[in-house]
Amino acid sequence: MGRCATGRGHQLAVRFAQQCASAGFRPEIRYEVSQLSAMLGLVEAGVGRGFVPASATRAEVPGVKFRSLSWWNHTVDFWLAWRKQNPLQPFDSYCSPIEFQRGKRFSKRADRQAGSTQLRVKRRLAPRSRHTRVSPRICRPAHLMQFAFMKISGPDLHLFRVFESVVRNGGISAAQMELSLSQPTISNHLTALERRLGVRLCERGRRGFSLTEEGRRVYEIGTEITGMLDANSARLSCLRSALAGEVSVGIVDCMATDPSFRLSDAIAELSETAPEIELNLKIMRPNDITKAVAENEIDIGIGGSDIKVASLRYEIIYREEHAVFCGSAHPFFRRKEEAVTCVECYGYPWIHRGYWYGMRRQRFDNLAANRVAFDIEAQLLMVLSGAYLGVLPIHFAGLFEQQGRLRRLAIADEAYFADIEVATRAGEQAANVAYVSDTIIRAHRIHL
Hints:
This protein is of the alpha/beta class. The protein has helices at 9-22, 36-44, 91-102, 154-169, 172-179, 183-197, 213-238, 263-273, 286-294, 342-345, 376-384, 394-402, 431-446; strands at residues 2-4, 31-33, 50-51, 75-80, 105-111, 116-124, 202-203, 210-211, 245-251, 277-283, 300-303, 312-327, 351-353, 371-373, 390-393, 406-409, 416-425.
């Protein structure tokens, strides 16, 4: 004899043997199969008899006859379970199709303590005899996992990277610049990841940002996954050792006027030594460059940023000097240099760059009148208007200073040198990317 094994097959076999013994005989079970079609095939071949769900009697199998057993009494409980914080379709939409198509009996139970409704379906494996009375068993609620196995996809990796950035920066607001996403978008990504995993990752709101215990575990797993993918991506790229193919390079704006920027020399060398390498140059914002290199969207980044990512490698190639400038229409333009004081300067409106941290804005009194620009050329236009003061690269603003449209102010507290760096992903690099990066660094070291 054989039986169709299920997830509760052992309990079913024990109960079947007990009821056979009550009926006066002991079955010899020779085969256990996991599929109904296999069971019917063995019966058709004459290997033995088997017992199957009552629904199988609808099948027309040549050479197989179905008989009901009046002494066999068994039902299977089906449960519909869902997480209480996840939206669920109306309960009746789950019940009606099964009820009308299969004619089964249902019982609803509202579990207010758990905050969810559970569905129990009683299904008999054999038709009920009119002489047999069956009482439904009392079943304990089953605790089901929302995801028994999670298969990570491309969108999941993006959500992991967003979550990793938020944790690394200590909150959604601080992660905005690195991700170049708005707060609502970042919050929606976190919510999507929480729903995907079925756990609460963090507490966020007016009280600040804090990780839950599950969030800490997810952060550790997520960083391990993304780090492993980045490392193996580089290893796969190394399989192609030829100095050919596209190499994408992200560069901050307004670098062409800097005589210390020797990228043109590097390009000239590459055109001779590796003519099959195709350079793809992109003008990008500093934080966008960091994000793009980290996420493998570009190969090399050139610029300066306050944000540093652990998975990247940085090489300083030179330092870019910045100073404070005002436009020809500003009150300071025609004033004597000794008459311009730092205290008075901080009382006028300023135009800042959006990717600067707040520490550069703490000394200003008239914060409400200050403005933000994310590109140096946009900042320059605001300074040229005469309505704002701004910190600009000397090599870029100097051209307009020679034309008499800007004036450099001797405010030592705001003058500074920005480190211009070459950023690449840490670990192994593809041969063409490594060659381009080394060529750029070498071109700048020659002129140091």
